[in-house]
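ok so I'm stuck.
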Amino acid sequence: MSDLRDAAMSAKAWPFEEARRILKRYEKAPPEKGYVLFETGYGPSGLPHIGTFGEVARTTMIRRAFEVISDIPTRLICFSDDMDGMRKVPGNVPNQDRLREDLQRPLTSVYDPFETHESFGHHNNAMLRRFLDTFGFEYEFISATEFYRSGRFDEILLRAAEKYDDLMAIMLKSLRDERRETYSIFLPIHPETGRVLYVPMKNVDAAKGEITFDDEDGREWTLPVTGGNVKLQWKPDFGARWAALGVDFEMYGKDHSTNTPIYDGICRTLGVRPPEHFTYELFLDDKGQKISKSSGNGISIDEWLTYASTESLSYFMFQKPKTAKRLFFDVIPKAVDEYHQQLRAYPGQELKAQVNNPVYHIHNGDVPESKMVVPFSMLLNLASAAGAEDKAAMWGFIRRYAPDASPETHPDLDAAAGFAVKYYEDFVKPTKVFRAPDTKERAAMEDLAAQLRAHDGATDDETLQSLVFAVGKAHEFENLRDWFKALYEVLLGQSQGPRFGGFIALYGVDETVALIDKGLAGELG
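replied:
not stuck anymore, here's the structure
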């Protein structure tokens, strides 16, 4: 363990860098509460999306890294802001007309458009927890509604009433003039309509812990700030939650970064040291737009898992969290293959390299062996050339290429074969465009077919790749990339593809000859 801790203390992998920062927070004395608290927040205004998973996955990676370098116990809280008022109806849910009746009510008081739970907030919380549970995350779930109504937030709310002027001063600096006139850190829940009210305060009585305000109809009300009668505006709520729970670490997207001084200021004013934070870049859809829960663009959690393993998604989340990345279907094959490349590299690495390998953090140091003897990208091309409609058909080719492999001994390969068929049918097949070869390309492909027919030597990847390479040189392709591109476009209907020798070895020499003949005859398009 000491060797691992030594390696972790100098590791450049970002989870260890963040873990060391948290440890420095307690270099003088351990936390009085007895543990280090990690938090991740969730706004259940729409269905959980993949960015939410990324936040929990990355926070968990840092938590586990911290546990390597420190003996201080840890906790992870997933906090749902389900007491927020529903400001607009999400565009990707049913029964939208009925939902409009509940605008401005807390999400846990809003009709569930799916009619499976007591509210929309409860439904979305259940969706989040179901998914986090399938990944085996260790976390504690807290509902803001329960947090406010149970009294767990009362002490901080009373302190907020005492510090009302100071907290307002922090917020007013960040607001436009017209907003300042009606702004209050407190949002009353109307006793009759149940709606979250955005109204100015007429009086804040710190001694009694009460607020007085007029509702939209001009009627005056006085409510206690405790017991769920009032909630905080979202920015003050962020910092106040840190103070109430004693949060030590929270990460959030770049769109929150300008609010960090506000969150910290709120927390300090309430008498608590702000946590360490980590700002990650946003995920973008295929058009370069930020992915959003309410609009449903980008990839959903379930969609990724339709085409690839959970580990490939974790790998994608590990990569360069401070760099904006497109999160669309076309990133999946690369993530799958790179994940397995790292798995294969891991056993041969020294400990210092292992703790920097993404798979160490994905698997919390218990790294499995990769059984993917065929890359996912190659499986996609096999599905294309073979017209495979299920993974059983794929295994006919895989067994010839890797005789020792079977679905039982290579479960990750078996799953990937099934994923590849689905991915090919949905994303590759509809975009394939075959073309006819030009004169030079046709002569080279006829030569390649003839040499493959006559070939009676080894049929491994490297031997066949050398043969394809030699044909390209013999036909004077100045840039051999043009030769391989021609093979892909004529035979596979795409501009990029696998190492062609590896493809022949997997698909079969005779089958490849037949594919070339069809391509030259114009029978593939």
